[in-house]
Amino acid sequence: MQDNNAKMYGIDLASGRANLIAGTLRLNGSEDTASVNAIGFNFKDQYLYGFRKESKQVVRIEQTVEGETIHYDSTALNVSGLPEGIHFFVGDVKVSGDAPAEGETDNRTSSYFIYNKGRGLFEIPLSNDLNAPLTATKQPGSESWSTTIYDFAFHPITNKLYAMESDGDLFEISLEPNSTPELVTRLDIGTDTGAFGAAYFGVQDVYDEATGETTENIIFYVSNNNSGNIFKVDLTNVPDDKSGYNPTTEIFTLGPKSGQNDGARCAIAKVEVTDESMDFGDAPLPYRSALDNNGARHVFDPNQDSQNLIFLGDSVDGENINTSSDMNIDYSDSSDDGVILATDFAAGLTAQVIVTASQASTLYAWFDWNQDGNFSEDEKAIDKVNLTQGSNSILIDVPEDATNGNSWARFRVTDGQEATLTAYGAVQGGEVEDYEFETYGSESYPGQNDWVTLAYEDRWPYLGDSDFNDLVLHYRTIKYFSSEGVTSYRIEGEILGVGASFHNGFAVRLYEKDVDSGLVKVLSAEQIDSLNSSLFINGQAVSETIIEPNRTEAIAIVAPDIWDHINVQNGCEYFRTEVNCDVNAKVTFSMTLPLKTALSPESAPGSMLDPFIFASSDHYHGDAITDGNYRGLEVHLKNQVPTEAFNTALFSVAADDASNQSESLYFQTENGIPFALAIGAPWRHPHERVDINSAYDKFADFATSNGKSAPLWYNTVNTNITIQFGAEQ
Hints:
By secondary structure, the protein is mainly β. Helix content is 1%, strand content 38%.
């Protein structure tokens, strides 16, 4: 009951949906503009009782039907014994005695209780003829109670009153003469302030996973006028001795806000799901996904018109999950289709999810990193992030102490009107989707937050202009493992510069050769789970085949032609290799390659793997290619054996390359100058057509000595003829 001109709303406690039942009440058959407060429901005679403010009268409210019109009529009762001119806004109905068996006489008694601070608690009997005069009796000593309460409710079993002050103090009130309200505990109500103007009890089925039994618990509900938040407290078994008794509260659902607010319900009626547009979470016990543990739930069609619905993926549907035992039947939901876990989740690293939204909306997500079966607030990985209609790429930092193994994540999408959101409770509009995921251990090269810089000359077997900026990129590999062994790979990078007129592709062979032992570790294409592999460039999924077809070796193609993914700055010929042409955004890529079967760490390649460039098909790539086999031209790091796709006839071309297969010398000149570099630090690449020796005067010493001289050659740089660090962009 709300507003100065009393309006009656029905609140579905499970969903929080509020429906206007009566825009006005009637008194003696005519529209009544007065306010009514202190309402209580008498579950013996099925009437509401309240106190009419303007006339200071107790009224009984009943539903009447005239034709097809439903009215709510109030009838003033003739009550004496109340203080003159005093308004009561705190009230409820107590029903005493056992419910009769079918066919037996109902001998229960009922009374309407109202309270005013300073005036006291008054009882008005309702079991006799209500058309006759009634006498209110004051409970002795109640006029001196110091508690400031705005509503109370009778416990349906003990018939004790319970009320909550605005600071969260929960009180129990006995009807014994000269008793005083007893503080039960101070409840944590968060940031809510002001009056709790509506209080009532209900019964809720609660499933005990340990015993497999369902019990009926007695729940106390209170509604805050300012926020509309409806809190719940389980008061099933309140001990006489309150020391050490600390019940807890939490927001159960959200009702309407109001400056004048009161509420009542049948205290012995169950709170159950009745709304067909209720979407629940699907994570299994002990996660909170059912009504009995205040699980996450959304009324996805709050206006009941199927218009402008907010959801994830292609659709949303509802389900009735009253108790956690319902989760044992089937906790899958076919409409959970809005989130793609695009990359593996490894402790200490960043993962990516792709979220598809039906319209502009707001997203929250929790990941159970410690696998304790609870989505705690410190596990909130996405907090009120704005989504656009369609696909959204979101990065998630996985904690370094995340537990390896299977766990669950919860995503909730809303219209964003809420101040904040927890992983449980009811929301009007939106959807909740739960996903199982696996957290892995990881091994990163060169480090989880570090890059190695790769730089290529693409005119091999000719040295070209030696500016080493035909392709420049940051590069990192990550190897994931579980208790079974290595399970997948992730390859990440940022394209920092493209100074090539030729068209080049970039690829990585899953290959490693131990420098000291000569042991080769290489994966075959058959070992890669190609169907579940993924590639994202600038956050967008790429649909092309990732593992190169018709190869024995596992060769992952990042891009068949780098030029397809870069935009050249206006007035520039190349991408971030010319003077005043270095402001373009970097091009990012992330590739995930799961294995069909886990490998032992000893047999799985790691570290750098084998990143290389190759000539793009159908584009001129120099005079060395005479047979149209563009893919056969590859450029690898120094002394890296090429892939099976390489055209070995190119080793015979008279040029600058001095590769010698019999001596395992590859991709270097006679003086040891490489055609590709791996620099273990951020690196300023030379301007277009600037020889690397001009930019780095110690480079030749390093290259011709096989790395024995000037190992830190890249620290001595002419900044006037180089592009700023890619890491600074």
